[in-house]
Design a protein that fits this description.
Radius of gyration: 28 Å
Strand order of the largest sheet: 2-3-4-1-5-6-8
Shape: elongated
Oligomer: single chain
Distance between the termini: 77 Å
Number of strands: 11
Largest sheet: 7 strands, mixed
Strand content: 5-15%
Structural class: alpha/beta
Length: 628
């Protein structure tokens, strides 16, 4: 095996060669990059841009190499940040060799970018990735003829199976040091850019001519299969999407209940052990209460309630994405967003928001139009993130699903959650249309959505990645907030003025407004104190109700329901809580992300005011209607 990684090779070493990776989206470029660098990348932003960069360092035959992963682009002639970054980098000639990654099953379409890259720099290697999938489809590519037509080496790989990587790197290094000579093809180097329409037409002409000489594609290869017809149909697409979402919620709810009970029991035993230990070493009772009833209890509740649904939801969601199903779900919403004056890519960022609104906001970078990007950012928090889902699941299960069957309870809860998602999407479209006709009337960009082929997902890698980079990231953020939140609530409960706690003063002050919204002062205070992280709203609320800085002996939804009902909760309270939970100001992390992405205090402030105003109005209307 020629390809050798060395963990000692890092960014502090001087590199012998710099190799760039460029290609269309969905060609397996990131999988190739990860396979080569061993997932030991460094990330950052390109100078002056919010586009992510990734680069990795490794050793090959005692030579230090740097691999630069350029953003996935379809062209080098557009004005999007990704295409500007790729074009600028390639023209800088920093790379000693450029590996152009293409999808072997879609060579003709990918050749358009290949020709543009070779026009800039012919020190390159063509990587025919997904070679195994092409063979399964009956696609044949004459690599020798293709190499002759392009003037560069052609190597076939399968990144997901680590096939051909050694030969690819070996070839790229030999191109870098001049051992393999590449040459300019006259028809490519003489492409004129003076007339853009003619330039594009000439590229397509050359691509077609090359493919006619070296490519064979079976007649049935490009036929739309039955699954695609169902998933992208105007009639069946959205119902199937909602059904998949309902099944995902049902699996999450059923699985999370068991794990939550186990974690709750484990944490209660740990608290008992710690309490005995602290008493035995003569720790002051006040300090014990502060540490265990204030901090540790809040921390344990957040972990027990949040970790199980995230550990189930994120991996399944990622598997749907990797298999090619998720892009087709987004395709169904594309036309809806176009009709309201928004960008079709917002459907993708909205799907990202289901996991984390902060990630969804960062995902809005893919939208080229500034006005459309702002619309997507301002409405992203309308979709309930994973920090809100545990609260929605808990309250929905208690007040909407009360049958004698655990199975039917979970089905009803899943159905209600799907309805809530539909409501959030509908409101997103309504607000997007209003914004597109008022504050953000800018030019509309064109969105080309590519449907990747169905692929068997890498189950183990996907689960590990989603747990480590998504679930664990969100959980650690919640834990970081839960510790000071627990301490703050304990202090507010235990510091009194005229025998009345500070927390009681605050909740009493908010009580009249809370009642008008169908809620109470405690709930409003919980949302305010939960600004750092939505995951802490219910823990803060329960600690306020008990007035003893502890969650009591919480071990399941039944005990939680009894506590809420004893504090005046009814059906109206539950409905209004769900509304405000879905539509209120984003968490602190999302607000910080919005400011970093927009560099605008006005947009950040509007992202806080807009959903909160809508939530308050809906609560007022709901409370009034249900009181009739």
């Amino acid at each position: 095996m020629l390809f050798i990684r060395d963990s000692k090779c890092d960014k502090h070493l001087e590199c012998d060669f710099e190799i760039a990776l460029v290609g269309n989206p969905n060609v397996g470029k990131s999988s190739l990059f990860n396979a080569i660098t061993g997932l030991k990348q460094h990330t950052g932003n390109w100078s002056g841009k919010t586009v992510d960069s990734a680069f990795g360092y490794y050793k090959y035959n005692k030579q230090n190499l740097k691999l630069v992963d350029l953003p996935g682009v379809y062209s080098l002639k557009s004005d999007s940040d990704e295409e500007v970054v790729a074009n600028t980098y390639l023209k800088s000639k920093k790379a000693d060799c450029t590996i152009i990654v293409v999808d072997s099953t879609n060579l003709e379409r990918n050749l358009n970018l290949v020709l543009q890259v070779l026009k800039i720099n012919h020190n390159a290697v063509l990587c025919l990735n997904m070679w195994d999938e092409a063979k399964k489809c009956g696609v044949f590519i004459d690599k020798d003829e293709l190499s002759l037509q392009l003037g560069i080496p052609v190597i076939s790989t399968s990144a997901t199976k680590n096939n051909g990587l050694d030969k690819l790197i070996d070839t790229a290094v030999k191109v870098s040091n001049g051992k393999i000579k590449t040459y300019k093809v006259k028809s490519i180097s003489e492409l004129s850019e003076d007339d853009y329409c003619e330039y594009v037409e000439n590229i397509y002409t050359i691509s077609t001519r090359i493919c006619n000489k070296c490519l064979y594609v079976p007649e049935n290869k490009n036929k739309v299969n039955l699954i695609d017809k169902l998933l992208t149909s105007k009639v069946t697409g959205i119902p199937i999407m909602l059904l998949l979402l309902g099944v995902l919620f049902w699996i999450t709810i059923v699985g999370a209940n068991y794990f939550s009970e186990i974690l709750s029991y484990a944490f209660s035993r740990i608290i008992d052990i710690l309490r005995v230990f602290l008493v035995n070493i003569s720790v002051n009772d006040t300090i014990i209460s502060f540490l265990l009833d204030g901090i540790f209890t809040t921390l344990s509740w957040v972990v027990a309630v949040m970790l199980p649904p995230m550990a189930i939801f994120f991996p399944i969601f990622s598997l749907l994405e990797d298999s090619g199903v998720l892009p087709r779900i987004a395709f169904n919403l594309d036309s809806c967003f176009k009709k309201v004056g928004a960008n079709g890519k917002q459907s993708l960022t909205m799907a990202m928001g289901l996991g984390c609104n902060s990630c969804g906001v960062m995902g809005c970078r893919i939208i080229n139009s500034e006005s459309e990007k702002n619309i997507a950012i301002l409405t992203n928090s309308f979709v309930p993130c994973n920090g809100k889902l545990p609260s929605l699941i808990a309250i929905t299960s208690i007040f909407f699903a009360s049958t004698a069957s655990v199975f039917f309870d979970s089905v009803i809860t899943s159905f209600v959650l799907v309805v809530l998602i539909v409501v959030s999407i509908s409101l997103t479209l309504i607000v997007a249309e209003v914004l597109s006709k008022t504050l953000y009337k800018g030019d509309r960009s064109v969105f080309m959505m590519e449907l990747p082929p169905y692929r068997k997902p890498q189950i183990i890698k996907t689960i590990v990645y989603s747990l480590k980079d998504k679930a664990l990231f969100v959980l650690l953020r919640a834990v970081a907030v839960a510790v000071p939140a627990g301490a703050l609530i304990w202090l507010m409960v235990n510091i009194t003025i005229n025998d009345v706690s500070i927390l009681k003063y605050c909740t009493d002050f908010l009580e009249p407004f809370g009642k008008a919204l169908g809620l109470d002062g405690v709930i409003l205070m919980a949302f305010i104190l939960g600004f750092p992280a939505n995951e802490t709203v219910i823990p803060i609320m329960l600690m306020s109700y008990t007035s003893s800085s502890t969650l009591m002996d919480y071990s399941g939804l039944e005990q939680l329901g009894m506590l809420l009902v004893s504090n005046g909760w009814n059906f109206t309270t539950a409905v209004c809580f769900i509304i405000l939970c879905m539509f209120h100001f984003p968490c602190s992390t999302t607000c910080i992300t919005i400011y970093k992405e927009t560099k605008s205090f006005k947009t950040t402030a509007l992202s806080v005011i807009l959903p909160t105003f809508i939530g308050v109005i809906l609560c007022l209307l709901t409370s009034f209607l249900l009181s009739l």
